[in-house]
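User: Second chain of the day. Same drill as before.
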Amino acid sequence: MSFNVLKQKSGYFSLILTIVSGLGWSNAVIALELDIASEVVEVSQAGPVERHKIFLSRLKKISNSLSRDEYQMVQGVLQGQTYKADDDATLEEVMASLDRAVDEGYERLFECVGRGCGSSNEWANAVFGQPKLYGPESTQFYWVGKAVQSQTYWLVYGSKRSNKAVHYRVESVVSAAPSLHPFHIRQLPLPTRRNASSGSAFRVT
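Assistant: Same format as last time:
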């Protein structure tokens, strides 16, 4: 994963989500740090989930239901926070910050940018329950990964409206057991990539 950095900010914000297990796991601190100036606008306290669906594809709606073709079902402890980046921060800067944060120690499961992610309204409201995340389909991104050394899944979604600051959501699920696969998950094509010298990893449509 590699995003262009359009502007380097002098300030930074480190996102650290702490998950303290109460369901039989040993206590642990799991951190995903984004080095971009932001403020917390919503916190979802850690709580158990039995069948939490992690989407691994472009989000679409069929007969008033979200597509079930490509996702992973997990159980464990879910926690999340929503952030507002500085007013002058660009979507590309937030993506670049995420790129640096997951450069090592994470296995990428899925990522998309722009219209390749599908409906921003569905991501914001149906998936994350955060209306602040809604924006044009052309200015959004979504990333899913798994920590290499733990059973922790990470989801990051962000978007920007033309006259609003970038809002992004970071969620983690500490899995209590191997993933559940009640439905077929198709092999996903990788996004179009370029080498580091040529620029962005994604073609925004």
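The longest helix spans residues 91-101.

User: Great, on to the next one.
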